[in-house]
Amino acid sequence: MIIYDYEVFKYDWLVVAVDMNTGEEYHIHNDTERLKKLHDSNANGVWVGFNNRHYDMYIHKAILLGLNPKKVNDWIIKEGREGWQYTTAFNQIQMINYDVMTATGRIGLKTVEAFLYDDITETEVPFDIDRPLTDEEIQMTFKYCHMDVMQTIRIMLLTSDVWDATIGIIKAFPDMVSIKDVGDTESRLTAKVLGCIRREYKDEFDFAILPCIQLKKYKFVADWFVQIMSEAKALNFENENEKRAWYKSKSLTVEIAGIPHTFGFGGLHGAENKPVHMSHKDGAGYHVDVNNYYPSMLLAWELVTRAATNDNYKIVYDTRKELKKKQKAAKDKEEVKKWKKAQLPYKKMLNALSGAMKDITNPAYDPRNNNLMCINGQLMLLDLIEHLEVIPGFRLIQSNTDGLIIWLPDTDEAFELLDDICYEWEQRCSTDNCDIRLALDCIDEIYQRDVNNYLWIDVNSEVERIGAVKPLSPIDNDLPIVNKAVVDYMVHKTPVKDTVYNCNEFGMFQKIVKLSSLYNHVEHEHCEPRVVTTGVRVKKTNYVYDSTDKYVNKSYRVFASTDMSDGRILKIRDGERSKFANTPDHCFIHNESVEGMTVPQKLDRQYYIDKANKILAGFGERR
Question: I want to staple 364 with a disulfide (CB 3.0 to 4.6 A). Which of 179, 191, 301, 328 is the partner?
Answer without folding.
Answer: 191
